[in-house]
Amino acid sequence: MGAPSMSIDVARIKKDFPILGRTVRGGRELVYLDSGATSQKPYQVLDAERSFYETSNASVHRGAHALAEEATIHYEDARELIAAFIGAAPSNIVFTKNATEALNLCAYAFSNATALARQGAPGRAIDPRFVLSPGDSIVISEMEHHANLVPWQELCAKTGASLRWFSVDDDGRLDLSNIDALIDETTKVVSVVHQSNILGTINPVREIMARAHAVGAVGIVDGCQSVPHMPVDIADIGADLFMWSGHKMLGPTGIGCLYGTTEILDAMPPFLTGGSMIEMVHLEASTFAPVPQKFEAGTPMVAQAVGLAAAVRYLTDLGMPNVAEHELALADYTIKALTSIPGVRIIGPGSAVDRGSAISFVVDGLHPHDVGQVLDNEGVAVRVGHHCAWPTCRRFGVPATTRISPYIYNDESDIDKAAAGIVAAQEFFGVAK
Amino acid sequence: MNLESLYQEIILDHYKHPRGRELLAAPLGAAHHVNPTCGDELTVQVAVDSDGRLMIGYEGQGCSISQASASVMSELVTGLAPGQSEVIRQAFLDMMRAKGTGEPDEDVLGDAVAFAGVAKFPARVKCALLAWMALQDAEIQSGLLTQQSKDGDS
Ligand SMILES: Cc1ncc(COP(=O)(O)O)c(C=O)c1O
Asked: Which residues form the Aminotransferase class V domain (chain A) (predicted)?
């Protein structure tokens, strides 16, 4: 077991997470290494959500009573805090159900604008950047989560635009050598992942966004795996749109965030429509509220926003640079632990440089499902499968991988247990080298 | 719950030494099934020999449970009269849905009783069923089985 990180006191942090005290599978201590899928929640987040319901629960932005006023203040204060976490202004943050919904919101801005333009909708300002036709292109990468792939495939099917992608090299890095050919005058959207959930790669998104803007395309970055794990300054990235999910950063399920520049959000037609997102409603037609309300139809997830704000406070207290440092050290430790086991191969960058702590691997002669099962039997929770990045698995010629994804409540001893479990799996199936 | 109850010797043996794992030269019907949560894939083909008995071809990749299940299935149903495979398939489904309770009928299920323990691991049930679902679709496709019997069991 290595020396604990200076700034992140894992033993103290663990005490904040009640679930980490439970046992699984007949009394085994839980070793949770699946935070890439979803993180666990500290008391501070659970308490914030509970306290909101106990003291201030009401519908926001409507009603004139005291509770409605308090609830609205909690909701908007949460937005302010969460926005500041990535260096944004509150009016540039839209709350969604999760990152998947935020990505669909973006894709639908294009299909809705295209449909409105075809219809010649009178009185509607339609920004030509969002109108697609055959000959246009959308650029993604070979390491996207399905959430940043399938909505664009659907958009292509609806508009005749074509999908292009950056390929991934053997070390799990994006091949940017053809960036100028890939992102060209036909390109209307460039949407890439900041940190890959399957490979762990941190991509040079600033450079990619700069090229997107050089050709007038809308630049989108999927920050699902970066915001929870490293300091993110949105101005540094230069994306027009950027999204992440609250549940992967200690927050509750049911809330995600979409950042957009004012100029882009104003230009985008709404996604979901109905109450709360309108300005004026007549039977014939309606006008829409300014952003961010334009994109928040219906009763929003207030308690979840309050919970997510508590998560932001928790992470801010730890210090995101410390979180990133802790995870880089764990990534380095994990890579060394895994590569020292004969028959184990890492899928993704083989060094702790420009990568996060999510580490995928395959074991010769063993299917990931079987590896995961043996680990589970030892109390070690990992993810197995294609991690919603099936094309990435195909790229590496594997049907699936096993993934270790630690967070602030994990230390080297957890990685040691996972490594021991992998050896146990090899022995159980008789494939040890 | 321990690993041995899931990974019975018979399962490990079929996984390491799959029986009849090859494709047919002239299949009457085939089905390719995937388990989208983990990426297991399996192609199952059916044909009948000159006596009208079932022949099975299969090929795939995936976890030990899915691949061993395909191997056990092919042994069990090869040589049966078309339609008889449904009886075994139904018994297998019942066993998988029993969550580890009840006594599977070894006379009907043969080696497949080894999968009884899988029923206690909900995440693995789909792996065990993959081959049997693909077999049913292949039989429907070949005309050896009607769509009705498929609709009936769910
Ligand atoms: C990189 C990436 N993008 C998108 C998503 C989708 O997030 P959610 O399922 O919370 O919408 C995930 C989470 O699995 C992810 O890791």
From this structure: 31-417
